[in-house]
Amino acid sequence: MNRLLAPLNNPEGWRRARMAMCTSGIIASLLLYAYLQERIMATPQGRNEQGEPVFFRDSLFLVLQNRLCAALAAAVVMAVRRQWDGFRCIAPLYKYASVSVSNVVATSAQYSALVWVSMPAQTLGKCAKMIPVLVWGTLMSGKRYGWMDYGVATAVAIGCTVFLLSGNIHAKHSDAGSSWIGLALMVVYLAFDGFTSTFQEKLFRGYTMSAYNQMLYVNLTSAAISLFGLLVSNRLWADLRFGWQHPQFLRDTLTLSLSAVSAQFFITFTIKEFGALLYATVMTTRQFLTIFLSNILFAHAMSGAQWLGTAMVFGALYWKTYIHQWSKKSPSSSNSGDDHGASHRRHDAPAGVQRPEHRIAVDRGSAAISPISPGGHDKGRP
Question: How many angstroms separate the CA atoms of 84 and 91, rounded?
């Protein structure tokens, strides 16, 4: 036993152990999050009296539950740290709501897309988020990006196109002819997800607030918007009744929310302790593992050309991460690093902001708006 624990007795050994814990924590949390998304939205939750499969289709209910869990997590963290000022509504409520509206639309579209397209198609679609982020950053914030950013975006777009055109992309229980609905929802997701990060950046620039303050109020207003949508459409009680009739569904949705919050805390610690480069590499690896495991667990039959398109996308992302590391070490990086770094942040976490002491992640992969530390990314967000 002592021999097994010996590496932890020196600082470098302990650092490696913490790095392994963070890496495995992020990957495990977000793989579980992706698995539950597909299980909830794309597989039957049971059968009715006629023996027909019963599906759950209301993504807004999932958003409501996720946002409530994220808001509770932010409140608990501030209470434990005795950051009582964080509970004060610093910005006008409508400014928090401006972030919430775009985030609710993006997340709902992301979940709903799984009704019509497979998880591999959805995951690759989320890799293309850097394209609208470049557009929004240029149009709304006047940011400049380098040739590498546009080159990687082009390679990702080509890889996604090859994937979409060379094999099956529809969800297991949907018709192939309806895949365009899922693709349209992914376009909505990409557009509003990039818009969310721009709103967050403007909010941080205009007000002095902690990341947990924004996490609390954005998630509370997101929950309020989701609840309002469910009430006016008379779907809330039907969703609760569905959960009562299918207890496993409720357990899955609760675990979905907890896995998203868990991932964000692992992300926060990872970036704080080991930097954004490790995080970017871990997140790219996690996305590939999501596609690989989804093929195994849900029996998606990807063609050879689709695997080639997947390799193009992740090859471009890994190359971007490598070049970003090289440019930081290069003496000339002081002239070009800002543009490269800005794009690097926006690809991996469109919700990241310029203010160094307050960074936000929207998952896009992760389901909740959550704080991350300086230099952070999100994927996330899940």
Answer: 16
* Any domain includes 377: no
Report how far residue 216's alpha carbon sits from residue 214's, in angstroms, rounded to the nearest whole number: 5
Count of domains forming the chain? 1
So what's the pLDDT on residue 195? 76
Cβ neighbours of residue 308 closer than 8 Å, sequence gap 6 or more: 162, 166
- How far apart CA 231 and CA 224 sit, in angstroms, is 10
Amino acid letter at 326?
Answer: W
Sign of CA dihedral 348, 349, 355, 360: negative
CB atoms within 10 A of CB 108: 22
- Which pLDDT does position 359 carry in this prediction? 39
Alpha-carbon distance of 300 to 120, in angstroms, equals 8
Residue given tokens 């963290």 in the structure block:
77
Contact status, residue 192 vs residue 105, Cβ threshold 8 Å: yes
pLDDT value, residue 157: 87
Domain that holds residue 101: 20-372
Residue 6 within a domain: no
Q: Is 20 left (phi over 0), alpha (psi -120 to 50) or beta?
A: alpha
In a domain, 171, yes or no: yes
Residues in the chain, pLDDT under 50 = 4, 332-367, 369-382
Q: How far apart are CA 115 and CA 42, in angstroms?
A: 5
DSSP 273-298: HH-HHHHHHHHHHHHHHHHHHHHHHS
- 3-state DSSP assignment of residue 16: helix
Q: What is the pLDDT of residue 64?
A: 96
Phi-psi region of 275 (alpha: psi -120 to 50; beta: other; left: phi over 0): left
Q: Can you give the length of the chain in residues? A: 382
Question: What is the spatial distance between Cα 124 and Cα 34, in angstroms, rounded to a whole number?
Answer: 13
Q: Which two tokens stand for residue 326?
A: 């090289």
- Please report the pLDDT score of residue 3 as a whole number: 57
Alpha helices in the chain (DSSP H): 2-5, 11-42, 59-80, 93-113, 119-127, 130-141, 147-165, 179-206, 211-232, 236-245, 247-274, 276-297, 304-329, 333-348
